[in-house]
Amino acid sequence: MSSVTPSPAVAGGDGNGGGAALAQGPGSSAAPLGMAAAVAAVCAWGLGNTIIAAIPMTGTAIAFYRLAFASVLYTLVLYARGGRLSRRSFRFGREGGVAFGANISAFFVAIHLTSVANATTIQALQPLVIVGFAAVMFGERIRLRHIVCALIALGGVILVAYGAAQDGSGVGLGDLMAVVALVFWAWYFIASKKARRHLDTFEYMTVMNLVAFVVVIPITLITNDLFKTENHLNLKSALAILAIVLVPGSGHILMNWAHAHTTLVLTSLITLGLPVIAAISAAIFLGQSVTPVQIFGIVLVIAALAGVIVLDAKRTADATEPAV
């Protein structure tokens, strides 16, 4: 299967750093679908975090098994579809794999040491890291609506975290590991955006998981986690790991597809909804309470994200509407 290289306009810039609008490229009609894919990805990740937190294993062991399962599954599916991996695949996809492997190693540890709400809230600060890179590296225009909606959503995210702290969820090593994961999460998004200019979604996903697995192997060996009794695989834990591959893993497929059809700024802003989904999911399935303060924060985040998505979709529609 040959790699698909989206046009520079579809990838988010005009190829000359001029920040041409998505509507100017041939992929402009896919922009609303890109937004929808990003929203669906965040929902899948929010649900997936609850699954991760419920598995009675250490975070590094979960990361090892999750990437092992995913590497085998994606490689088999890629080759069954007629695709092939090459040096070119790894040249463009390895950076995202390194970032992703480091991210889930830190995040899976964090989510077992702090609340789901805290860990995902810290991860949701990603737009603060990414916005500058989106403008410089991809020529994307940062508009006033992005800044306003981001500030409102960040306010809501802070309320979600504050509500979790008030409820007795302490701040400690888990929160520190979530901050480490945040840095690698932002790097993963940027690397994926670059890779999708050269590789199609499934080819990139396969390479990314294989490289991430190689990154996690020495971490798991150093911590000796695989040899601990609680980390031994049984049918129940294997099915739970497979669920992680299929649920939040599908979120990565959707988001990496979206990277070629909408801007890095927008996909990053949409991830601000992750703590909302995670907090609701953890409350339903893990019994982690949601305070009134968190509920107010959730409403703010949803309103802000809905605003930026609707405004961006309207702008895309206006730009693509033929002249009368």
Describe it for me?
The chain has 324 residues and is mainly α. The chain has one domain. The chain has helices spanning 8-11, 31-54, 59-80, 87-113, 116-123, 126-138, 144-166, 173-195, 201-223, 235-246, 248-258, 264-270, 274-285, 292-320. Helix 4 packs antiparallel against helix 8 (173-195) and helix 5 runs antiparallel to helix 13. The longest helix is centred in the C-terminal third of the chain and has 29 residues, at 292-320. It starts with 7 loop residues before the first helix and ends with a helix.
Give a short summary of the structure.
This protein has one domain (49-318). 73% of the residues lie in helices and 0% in strands. It contains 14 helices and no strands.
